[in-house]
Amino acid sequence: MNLSFSTNAFVRFTVTEAIETIAKAGYSGVELLADVPHLYPFSTTGPDLERIAVCLEKNRVLPANINANNAAGYYGAKFWEPVFEPSLANPEPEARKWRVGFTKKCIDMAEFLSCRNVSVTSGRMVPGVRPEKSLALLRQSLLEIVEYASAKHVRVGMEYEPGLLVECAGELEVLIGEIGSGNFGANLDLGHSYLAGELPLDVARRLGPRIFHLHLEDIAGRKHYHLVPGDGDMDFQEIFRALHAIEYKGFVTVELYTCSEDPERAARQAIDHLRSEYNRFKP
């Protein structure tokens, strides 16, 4: 099991401090936040990326994913919660163009850092805009992005979430078929899947080899709030069985942006629990 941890829990730290702490906690990978205060693409320079590449190599961790889901930097604000707009389906042409450009810059950063994956979301449904229209705009944006990413040998993974335009595995499966590119697939957040009432094995088999990267956290009840694994109700052995069934070999990234007050403790608690559950699962 290749475990990674997202720097979006470490927004009170520099990105290099986050990488070092994640490596010391025992993770073999790190997901890099493409937003303030880490790798916001419109302010991250070539020398910044060189320092990050050196830090990754020094700490012997691999970049699992460039998380391009949010855009707090667009508003000049500090990161405090996911900000999906302007999205790839935004009805305003200039706003949508901005997001496409933002995502291309994230793909450039992924290429520089030899990171295989960039994650995106669809954004939310907009009042007054029918979902069919929003989906058409999303497809238009994705076709441009996926073509750009293909030339850079980077994969684009869509992350679905209840309440977004693309909010379940079935909808993402249809979208993957419509885009029709081998480098467009899923950034599967298993907490979101749990909230959607999906079974891990069903989702794993449905999306199969198009699962490029995974997000993992715990959920209590049906409240969308990311908890440290072990603090909620999710069945991690069931998840590991599902991933084993499809021979998933990629990174599983623990995403705990809710734990910014003490991310190091959260990272260590998460890896201990997941390793324990994985060892209990092993056939």
CATH architecture: Alpha-Beta Barrel
The overall number of domains is: 1
Unreliable stretches (pLDDT < 50, length at least 5) are none
In DSSP terms, counting alpha (H) and pi (I) runs of 4 or more, how many helices?
9
The gyration radius over C-alpha positions equals 17 Å
Ends distance: 14 Å
Can you say what the CATH homologous superfamily is?
Answer: Divalent-metal-dependent TIM barrel enzymes
Biggest sheet, open or closed, and with what strands and sense?
8 strands, parallel, barrel
Report the portion of residues in β strands. 5-15%
Shape: globular
Order of helices and strands: EHEHEHEHEHEHHEHEH
Read across the widest sheet, the strand sequence of neighbours is 1-2-3-4-5-6-7-8
SS content category? alpha/beta
Mean pLDDT: 96
Share of helical residues: 40-55%
* Count of individual beta strands: 8
CATH class term: Alpha Beta
**Fold-level CATH name:** TIM Barrel
